Amino acid sequence: MKEEIQAIERLDDLDFEFVSMDFHLYPKKLKTELQRIIDQSQGYDKIILAFGLCGGAANGLKATNCELVIPRVHDCISIFLCPKNGCVCDFKKEIGTFYLSNGWMITEKSILSDYQRILQKFGPQKANKILNRMYDGYKKILFIETGGVRQDEVIRQSKEIAELFKAEYETIQGQSAFIEKIISGPWDEENFITVASQGIITEEDFGINAK
Amino acid sequence: MSINKEELYNKLAEAVLNMEEEETVALSKQVIAENLDAYEAIVNGLTVGMNQAGKLFDEEEYFVPELLICSDAMYAGLEILKPHIKTKDNEIKRKAVIGVIEGDTHDIGKNLVKIMLETGGFDVIDLGRDVAPATFVEKAKEEKAEFIVVSTLMTTTMEGMNEVIEILNEEDIRDDYKVLIGGGPISQGYADKIGADGYAENAAEAVKLANRLVAAYGNEI
């Protein structure tokens, strides 16, 4: 979401820190990295995480030195697609949809390089077989357009992925209203989790409970 | 004996690790030709190679495609060795049903766990992906399985695991099964919270966990 956040006009008294997209595929490593940044951030009133539960990465994060705020969403698909609040995505309807955006393509273009690597080493038959086993659950690529300088290149890559998957290809206009709300507030309880200093964010905060 | 068996098992492990399917097959055939113990070759050869591949995956040297090709090699070796495993008369083969919970179609992890459980001597019934909680229970009953193994990659679907346990409780058959869970967003904390019997971080650990439960509960399940 780096580009999308940077595109928003912001207040002067905010500092931004961006986490490498390399963590996107590794939630447990992402958690360690987020906690490291939280721990070393001193002299702030509030830390806002522009993340969701993100595959469990946010579960157990501790507010070390100040208040910690995080959108009450599972991931940034909801952030991009829901302008007012982040909780309304119908994932059941979209089962089999592979979401892509400018930012995600930084890591997901690895699909193309994975394929090339296997193709060169083992030939097309094996490469296709492996790709099929990894992604045959996906029937549709949904590209979320959020602008950005590299978007044309990124759309080309995302179409290449759709061809490899033999999946449909659709685009949808991403929304920036919720991203603005993450940065500027108000951080209302319905859409955000706020924990005081020393508090811990849990998966229950995101609605994952034992019944 | 014409060949040092440890050396042969090491070669088997290496062949799996290096994604060499044909070599794995050739070495597995050699194990049989040399009249070595097939089970030992699986545990000390194939499984070791797959575990090493898993380690490289954790270190981000291998990626999912490499892991899948390693598992292909391991499976090819398994096909040859499996028929030669000497089963003891009093040994009961443990049965598991496995699947990805409803709403989720990510099944790479589930497939790896399935292969590793099979390699570990379990009889595994694969329910596939996007499986309703009730189906896990129905199939476990139908197949007289002792283990119900549930996987998910998404936080939006993980509560389905909870439902599996709830159904077992409602039907008053919770004690008849051991429920194991795993997948990206799952933690030991979540397993404890919903009352699952165990959580494993990866496929190799899943087999160890299942074996630990067999050792601890034996004939109770």
3D structure, described in words:
Chain B: Residues 1-93 form the B12-binding N-terminal domain. The complex is a heterodimer of chains A (211) and B (221). With 211 residues, chain A is of the alpha/beta class. Chain A has one domain. Helices cover 38% and strands 14% of the residues of chain A. Chain A is built from seven helices and six strands, in the order ααββαβααβαβαβ. In chain A, strands 1-2-6 form a three-stranded mixed β-sheet, with no helix packed on it. In chain A, strand 4, helix 6 and strand 5 form a beta-alpha-beta unit. In chain A, helix 5 (110-135) runs parallel beside helix 6 (151-165). The radius of gyration of chain A is 18 Å and the shape is globular. The mean pLDDT of chain A is 87. Chain B is globular. The mean pLDDT of chain B is 91. Chain B has two domains: 5-84, Methionine synthase domain (Methyltransferase, Methionine Synthase (B12-binding Domains), Chain A, domain 1, Orthogonal Bundle), CATH 1.10.1240.10; 95-220, Cobalamin-binding domain (Rossmann fold), CATH 3.40.50.280. Chain B starts with a helix and ends with a helix. In chain B, helix 8 links the parallel strand 4 (178-182) and strand 5. Chain B is an alpha/beta fold and 221 residues long. Chain B has nine helices and five strands; from the N terminus they run H-H-H-H-E-H-E-H-E-H-E-H-E-H. Chains A and B meet through helix 5 of A and helix 4, helix 7 and helix 8 of B.
